[in-house]
Amino acid sequence: MKWQNALNDYKYYLKIERGLSNNSIVNYELDVEKLMHYIDANQITISPITIDYEDIQAFIYEVSKQINPRSQSRLISGLRSFFNYLVFEDYRKTNPLDQIESPKTGRKLPDTLSIDDIDNLINAIDLTKEYNGVRIGERNRALLEILYSCGLRVSELTNLKISDLFFDEGFIKVTGKGDKQRFVPIGPNTQKYILIWKDIRAYIDILPDYRDTLFLNNRGKQLTRAMIFTIIKNLAKAINLNKVISPHTFRHSFASHLLENGADLRAIQLMLGHESITTTEIYMHIDKSHLKEVLLKHHPRK
Asked: Where does the record place the Core-binding (CB) domain (predicted)?
């Protein structure tokens, strides 16, 4: 079995049987391709079936010189999944990653923005700015409002449809990882800015495939992830924000601010679309002063 054949079969398995998103499949594919490139560069004659623990260990050792422990751990996890698939399909008897330990990385707490930071970023948007007759400032305000107010991932934002908006009920339908859907509440203020953008959007010459897509560029196509990163980066620069932020920073801030204001962790989990509440629990570590206030307020022997 050749490497490329094994990788193609694995990608098909991830898509059809596990139902993963294209972004997730690409990440798993990159993990295997790193190993393939190492084998080619070192002219090693070996297949996915015959590669053993020593070969993998040598590869991990070389990679560890170039990437940080967290990325190294992610790579090992991806390769372990690939070889688990080969074992599952009876191409191999054992997984050569079983004896490879991931480096200890600790728990990285997510970066967050203060409410003032978020207000300043949104206020820095030039609402009069037009591009090919499209008032992109109103679009940018709407997408930042929904990122923060609903805690969406950037891919969930770019894929959001007009048919996903249920404003009368106060919800939006979000398609998350693995095409799993959830309903997230949306407040009247955010609804207002989206409706303003919808009115402007109606004047764009929209390509047929994107007529139901909410956030578009001036050419009538779906707004890209990269463009949203650029919008946020430019706004941070405009207000001299001394932080490196991304669309995910708004999602972290959404969860953290809800928790700080007394929201139930289980409710936050459902809104974020986390499969396990242990993922959501990371936000419990951000603001220890909040935990102290909870103790003083609610414990009978404070």
From this structure: 1-87
DSSP state of 172: E
pLDDT, tens digit, 9 for 90 and up, residues 74-89: 899 999 999 999 998 8
Exactly one of 85, 148, 193, 283 is catalytic; which is it?
283
Q: Is 283 a catalytic residue?
A: yes
CA distances in angstroms from 217 to 205, 206, 214, 245, listed in the order given: 10, 9, 10, 22
Q: What burial class does residue 295 get, using C-beta atoms within 10 Å of its C-beta: 0-12 exposed, 13-18 middle, 19+ buried? A: exposed
Domains and CATH numbers, the chain: 3-88 (1.10.150), 115-294 (1.10.443.10)
Known catalytic residue: 274? Answer: yes
Q: Mean pLDDT, the chain, as a whole number?
A: 87
Q: Which is the catalytic residue, given 11, 182, 248, 290?
A: 248
Beta bridge partners of 222: 216
Cβ atoms of 175 and 181 closer than 8 Å: yes
Question: Does the reported pTM lie above 0.85?
Answer: no
Active site residue 290: no
The tokens describing 46, both together, are: 């070996």
DSSP state of 79: H
pLDDT band at 158 (very low <50, low <70, confident <90, very high): very high
The one catalytic residue among 177, 225, 233, 290: 177
177 assigned to active site: yes
Catalytic residue among 161, 182, 233, 274: 274
